[in-house]
Structure formats: C-alpha cells, structure tokens
Amino acid sequence: MTLPIRRKIAGFTAVLTLGVFSAGVFAQVDKPESDRKSVERIEVTGQKTIAQLKMAFDKQRFEFLDLYNTINETAKYDVLCSYHRTLGSMIAKKQCEPRYLKDFRAIATQTALMSSSNPGVDISRLPTDDHIIFLTKDQREDAFKHVAALVATHPELYDSFAKLDALHRHIEDRKEQARNGE
Is the pTM of this model over 0.85? Predict the structure, then answer.
C-alpha cells in the first residue's frame, strides 16, 4: 500500500521513499509483482522564498539572453551584459542592455563632450538615461518585435522564455500572497 503524504518545508521540494532496506527488499526484484511488499512513499514539498525565486529568475533571464544572442543575427539587437559596482560597494551586479542603446549612449555622450566650449567635462550636458531611453523609443519597439519574432520561430527560445514568464508570474503571485497575509 502506498500512502502519499504531503508536507511543506520552506526552501526545497523533495520526495522521500521509506522502506526496509535489507537483503529481503533487494531479493524482491526476482519475485512476481503479487509477492512484493508495499513501500510507503512520503512526498515533501515546499515553497521557495521570494528572494530565491528572484535569483532563479535572474539565472533564467541570463540563460535566455545567452540563447537569444546565439540565435540573433542582427548585431544592433544583441544584448550586452557586463558587471558593474555601485559607488561604495564591493558587490558587482550583472547588467544587460541592447547594443543599440549602448551605441546611442556613446554617440550622445561624445557629442555632448565635443560640443562643450569649455575644457573639461560639464556633467550637466551629458545625456541622462531617461533622455537616452526617450530618444531610442522607436528602436526599442523594433527590438521588441524582433525578439518576439525570434521567440515565435525558435522552439528552444520559446521554451526558455516560457520558463522566464512562469517564474515572473510565480514571483508576482508570491508578492500578492505576502500583501494579503497568506
């Protein structure tokens, strides 16, 4: 007789099978199905914390981006990732952005520096991220269409995106549960 018992333990999911591990159990392999003893089966399931889900999301996001970059043949839509440390921190975080955005930022910064009549750098004339994002709005929409077309035509990229989307929805569900006190 098999009795599934479910218990929640935060942080992991495991399936435990309990039985008598003696020579008699191993000898049952040669016995017919009707002569074998039952083994009790206990399933233990748990939930990941929101922080663990976010780490899984980031891992899946970077896997998706790596796969995307191998499939993508349009250089301006490549997604470039690099590690950055905020001022005063020793912890570097991986940040990614499309090539067209990096290129536009470089051109806008170079233009701002070249147009300055004063020697040195006038920080107020440098483009902000908000300006860069606003000025590349049309390219961003084209990039989204390009990614959507690749996801739709490459099953492995679609599967990776589906995993990413499922993790995102799971994180949002957990946040909602936390807000509702569940």
Answer: no
